Amino acid sequence: MYQFCTISTVSHLYKVYALADSLKNQQRNFLLNVLVIDDDGSFEFENCRFFKLSAISLQQHANDITTKYHKNKDKLRWSLKPVLMKYLLSKPEIDRLIYLDNDLFFFSDYKFLFDLLGAHSFLLTPHYYKNDPNKNQNWLEANFRIGLYNAGFVGANKSAVKTLQWWADCCLYRCEKNSFRGMFDDQKYLDVIPIIEETACIVRHKGCNVAGWNTEICKREIIDHRVMIDGKYDIIFIHFNENTIREIVAGSDSILFNYYRAYIETLKRHKENLKKAEIYFDSRLSDRLKLSLWKILTRLEV
Fold this sequence. Notes:
alpha/beta
């Protein structure tokens, strides 16, 4: 069975359900383990297993992290990633595990990622930020300011437990955006993992973690009526965070619009008042983009 995990608040469980739907469309033999950080209620959804914070309380640093970041749900979620992964990998039935942010959505088979975890202890996906030192240098600098790898996807097997504990130690030490200190929440620490984890693997399939920040390095092309990345990679999963959505709706990444439509249609099945969801009306969006989003969310038309 393919084992995944994610962390969510109750208000964003509709994204978890959409993520589960996308996983099921590719493989039915999977389980999505969901840690809900702000509710002790009972939840049910096909192919999902839900946990409360109390379930991981015996894990090293679980209570310390909860105490330190309980007033900031984002920092709490981010810092608990390695704690949850370590807890799940301690179970005899789980030897390979992939953490996913709940705003990811799969479009192609993910089996090869678990095959990689058979030979590698840790999986990381590069941001693939632009890296030209002669123009748009802010993107070059983002590699060093924000991190080489995206923390929305992390894979590990049982042999990586010590590294997961190290990551948890780091998150307990500091989970903050601080360029002067070389920190970016839980994410910047991942830059060190290929050094301390000898069998770590950088996933080179550019169809993984397709997002608004990698439009240039992961070039989108239509080949034989299919969207391909760099002319040879199918889209495995897209990271539909605010940046990705903004790029698609603004037309800068319009080739992904049909993928975005499929994502929205799935979200709407799990949240009737989706048009009121805060993420789609981020204050940084222009009025024109907000109007476009409103049309997409209410009528799925452009």
